[in-house]
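User: Okay, second chain of the day. Same drill as before: sequence in, structure tokens out.
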Amino acid sequence: MDPLIVLFIGMAAVVGGVLWLRLHAFVALIGGALVVGSLATPEMIEQSVLQDSRIQKEMLKQAENRFGEEDPNLAYMAQMLQETEAKYTATKSVVSRVTIAFGKACGSLGILIAMAAIIGKSLLDSGGAERIVRSALSWLGEKRAPLAFTGSGFLLGTPVFFDTVFYLMIPLGKALAMRFRKNYGLYIMTIVAGATMAHSLVPPTPGPLFVANQLNVDIGTMIWMGMVVGSVACATGYAYALWMNGKNKWQIPLRDSADSPLAKFEEIAQRDDKSLPSLGLSLLPVLLPIVLIAGRSILREADIVLPLGLSGVLDLFGDKNVALILAAVIALGLLALQKRGDKQTLAGSVQAALASGGVVILITAAGASFGTVLQQTNISGRIGELASEFNITGLLVLPMAFFVTAVVRTAQGSATVSMITTVGIFAGMAEELPFHPVYLAMAIGCGSKPFPWMNDSGFWVINRMSGMTIQESIRNVSCMMTAMAIDGLLAVMLLAWLFPMSG
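Assistant: Same drill. Structure tokens below.
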């Protein structure tokens, strides 16, 4: 069977399961993985392993460890190891291949996602997240409040899930609109513009974290590149929000809503600043892992030699798992300080965070299973053939990945699921590209933004809590996110052309 047909069957199983059968994303992805795995023949599996450049690199490392880097037969030994791996993988049952991929994903991403969930929940419960937003507003003033919302949304969107960031920031947006009696729609759109791009481009949120893992992209490289591309996309969203706000007939009035009455938000917004933690302590859990992980990556890329002791410390604390654990401990410490050591509150926050993060881990690992068995159909080779047939090479691979991700996102609604699905299709091509695979990761991340509509939970969160009509939500939010995605893709292509970072 043609791998493309298997791909469409697998995607239909996932999308149909989510949309029509109303299955949980975890169940739909596991079901899709089993369907795809059952359709993959031993010949497909063997060929996919033999052509996978990532496995080739892994086998070469194994050969170097066994026989030494100076062995003249090293390349031959690596080839034999890869052939053995291909034959062995082809003999495994579909259940075995799905569960192995599931376990690997949990092992590599589980701690990161759990720690990110704890950081986000602790910042919310301690008031640290609110302090960050209020400080940004006080620095920039009312006239620059939209800019403060965009920047704060992007910063908070790195450890905190999009829905949570929006829940946090909309009271401030509504409070400002109530105070100044204008610009409500502008505040809403700028909050969305910042938080939504961090959600798809900057680890440790699950989508970009998973994509980086699958493409063997260093987390530090993913973070700073996500910041660069995200800044461009946020600027586009900011400009779009200003333009829409300038159209009198399209301005969004401040409305009461059943899910979010104005009285509730006014009460939250009146919270005393003295009850909130300091800005420095609030920012520490967010910025510390970014600085440690990105700093370690930058020093390695620049080949900067540090004293032995300092280098060892940086290697330890710059490790993604250690950095996130340290940040989570600090965030919990901040929460304990604000709640005066209330053990029940701390336990409740951790339990709620892990319950939320656990679901994300399950979905992410199920997506890894789906992506792995999809790769084993030799879909990458088939996509490569199509790319050659239609002369899609070099930079043109980026818009192709963007388009595939956008189609999956629009079909089933989840940005994270669309990224997980698409990276499984393109992962095998990453090492053969004439530029760094981080650009492929960025294109996939940007592709997860268009076009949010009624099948997207985030769409309804924005719609219900803001009091927008469906027409207003599509015109203002959906169109803005699509424009941001396209400009983000253009920025990625330009960067890949100017700074390929290959080799």
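The chain has a mean pLDDT of 81.

User: Thanks, on to the next one.
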